[in-house]
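Bumping my old thread because nobody answered last time. Still need a sequence for this structure:
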């Protein structure tokens, strides 16, 4: 409810036209999101000094997709990039292209880019890109209109020449809906996920918005942050912006109001689900920490991200070129660690592991039919996309053998994951409890817990 009010008041611009602004917002106005800001620095550098990029022959960034729920600060960060680079910011919303201008979407897109080329270097920000960029399918009416608008956008993105220093940022909450053509190299080939803030992020956001406000003495931002799990940056900003002088009572009321709204949208995670996610992620983390090739954990979290209830993040080693069989086997164990923990700690299993299982199955299959890692079948590569009849040619028994090998890999991995959990129940409990308390734990905190 609150969010609606916000957007009405927001500076999204004169309704029917794209809006150009000089953004005064910089990265200092964006709380938390340190990694995201870091990633965006390259774009700021490019806008400030494109020549250097061209001279070095560096890859020129073009389109960046910002994915995240409404109110998580996608617009804010786009404006901050413009402000930081001191370039103009042109914005338009995808739904405006479609709804307001039946039949005119494509020409609006063309005009938008024309305008941008005139004032380049600049940023184009397209909010709600899914309104134009939804997957194409043959249809009539609104869909055809969509196609023309989308096609025009693709044409524009491909048509940049080297003189133009324009970065197109687009925001969406539903990246999976987007037409794949939009995500090809040279278009929106970079994606930055903007998650709902964790405890530390919430406190930082509150701090930024608390500047220049009068507070009653007993107001404590830290404790507000603790009570607002699930709130976006916009929700938090609203709590503080509703009043001139702020008392604890104001805050309690505002928090309650937002919470009720969130519960309706089921964005507040019920305690039971939180517990399940905590054990699931703790399971991945504990099992991984026992495996030589999987133990470089960066962060464990039970803050929802996209469709996932939580995540376990690993440090990446970019110098690496090959993946060994041992590493793949251990990856399977780590992936199945979530399900194993649910089963053993809570004596129940959930759909939360479905993506893990999908990924594990894919890896196991590739080990057999792509990388030739099966003792039994030997070094063979089967690719039915290359040749749909390949399996038929090899014979039915061969197909059965593949299935059996994949099953052995997965069963072995699951058994290993289960015994690692059983042998480390105390650590599992510790990590799960810490997750329930803090929502996110860093690599250092994790190491401390399992010492
Ligand atoms: P989105 O584009 O993702 O819907 P917005 O960027 O419009 O979200 O965010 C709305 C408002 O919420 C911002 O203008 C700002 O006041 C506040 N906000 C959101 N995220 C942050 C953040 N990380 N730091 C500071 N303020 C934030
Ligand atoms: Zn998982």
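Sorry it took so long. Here it is:
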């Amino acid at each position: 409810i609150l969010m609606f009010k916000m957007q009405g008041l927001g500076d999204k611009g004169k309704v029917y036209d794209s809006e150009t602004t000089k953004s005064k917002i910089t990265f200092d106005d964006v709380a938390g999101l340190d990694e995201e800001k870091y990633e965006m620095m390259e774009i700021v550098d490019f806008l400030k000094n494109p020549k250097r990029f061209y001279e070095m022959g560096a890859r020129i960034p073009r389109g960046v997709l910002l994915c995240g729920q409404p109110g998580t600060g996608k617009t804010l960060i786009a404006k901050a990039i413009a402000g930081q680079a001191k370039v103009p910011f042109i914005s338009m919303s995808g739904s405006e292209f479609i709804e307001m201008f039946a039949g005119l979407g494509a020409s609006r897109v063309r005009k938008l880019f024309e305008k941008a080329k005139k004032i380049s270097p600049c940023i184009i920000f397209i909010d709600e890109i899914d309104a134009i960029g939804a997957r194409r399918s043959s249809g009539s009416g609104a869909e055809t209109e969509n196609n023309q608008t989308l096609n025009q956008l693709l044409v524009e993105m491909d048509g940049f020449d080297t003189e133009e220093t324009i970065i197109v940022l687009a925001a969406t909450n539903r990246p999976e809906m987007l037409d794949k053509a939009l995500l090809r190299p040279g278009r929106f080939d970079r994606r930055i996920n903007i998650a709902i803030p964790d405890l530390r992020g919430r406190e930082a956001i509150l701090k930024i918005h608390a500047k220049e406000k009068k507070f009653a003495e007993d107001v404590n931002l830290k404790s507000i942050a603790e009570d607002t799990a699930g709130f976006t940056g916009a929700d938090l900003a609203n709590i503080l912006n509703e009043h001139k002088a702020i008392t604890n009572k104001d805050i309690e009321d505002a928090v309650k109001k937002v919470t009720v709204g969130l519960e309706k949208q089921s964005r507040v995670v019920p305690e039971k689900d939180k517990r399940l996610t905590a054990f699931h992620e703790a399971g991945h983390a504990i099992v991984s920490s026992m495996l030589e090739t999987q133990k470089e954990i960066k962060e464990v979290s039970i803050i929802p991200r996209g469709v996932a209830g939580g995540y376990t993040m690993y440090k990446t080693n970019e110098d690496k070129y090959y993946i060994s069989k041992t590493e793949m086997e251990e990856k399977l164990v780590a992936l199945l660690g979530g399900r194993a923990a649910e089963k053993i700690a809570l004596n129940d299993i959930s759909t939360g592991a479905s993506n893990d299982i999908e990924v594990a199955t894919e890896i196991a299959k590739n080990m057999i039919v792509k990388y030739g890692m099966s003792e039994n079948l030997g070094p063979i590569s089967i690719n039915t996309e290359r040749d749909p009849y390949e399996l038929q040619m090899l014979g039915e028994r061969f197909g059965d053998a593949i299935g059996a090998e994949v099953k052995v890999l997965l069963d072995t991995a699951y058994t290993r994951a289960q015994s690692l959990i059983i042998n480390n129940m105390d650590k599992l409990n510790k990590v799960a409890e810490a997750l329930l308390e803090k929502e996110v734990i860093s690599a250092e905190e994790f190491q401390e817990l399992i010492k």
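DSSP finds 19 helices and eleven strands in the chain. Let me know if any region looks off to you.
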